[in-house]
Amino acid sequence: MGLIFSRQCEYALQALLYLALKPNGQMTSIKELTKRLNIPYHFLAKILQDLAHKELLHSLKGPTGGFSLGMPAQDITLFHVVEAVDGIGFTNSCVLGFKECSERNPCAVHEKWGSIRESVYDMLVSKNIAQMAREMKKPEYKPPFE
User: Fold this and answer.
1) What 3 state SS string does 65-86 have?
2) What is the pTM of this model?
3) Cα(44)–Cα(127) distance, rounded to whole angstroms?
4) Which of 27, 47, 51, 118 could form an S-S bond across to 66 if both were Cys, CB 3.0 to 4.6 Å?
5) CA 18, 87, 69 angle in degrees (round to 5)?
6) 105: Cβ–Cβ under 8 A, 6 or more apart, which residues?
7) What is the pLDDT of residues 26-75, one digit of tens each?
8) How remote is the C-alpha of 15 from its chain's centroid?
9) In angstroms, what CA-CA distances link 20 with 71, 74, 93?
């Protein structure tokens, strides 16, 4: 589990970054994604279906089917993915889980978390999948693709 986002969201981001490196419209099988990214097949299948339902991905069934991005990679921000998978509760929730946490009634880390939360939000809305994919240095995101 990640620090801020669910495992499901982390896998969604990883898969979208991988798909952003493929030629526009090229379908990629779940099998290829799970092999390259080392993500459990059934878990990733559910995540990708959810992303297709939210129109971040296109899906096509059959032997030549798979998934491709539902819109240009430069139009999909990290925030779009986080919002689709985990929701945006982190943008206004207390990191310690207190329901009543505000400027008037702060928890012990309210001020510090507020600045961190703003930085995370700014990064999520300013970075898109195309930028992130190009900047990726991990070997599973480098050719040769199957």
Assistant:
1) CEEEECCCHHHCEHHHHHHHHC
2) 0.86
3) 23
4) 27
5) 25
6) none
7) 999 999 999 999 999 999 999 999 999 999 999 999 888 899 999 999 99
8) 8
9) 10, 9, 31
The Cα-based distances of 37 to 54, 55, 145 in angstroms read 22, 22, 12
Domain boundaries, the chain: 7-136
Q: What is the pLDDT of residues 10-26, one digit of tens each?
A: 999 999 999 999 998 89
Start-to-end C-alpha separation, the chain? 29
Structure tokens at 78: 């990290």
**Which residue do the tokens 């703003």 mark?**
118
Structural tokens at position 61 = 């069934």
CATH code that applies to domain 7-136: 1.10.10.10
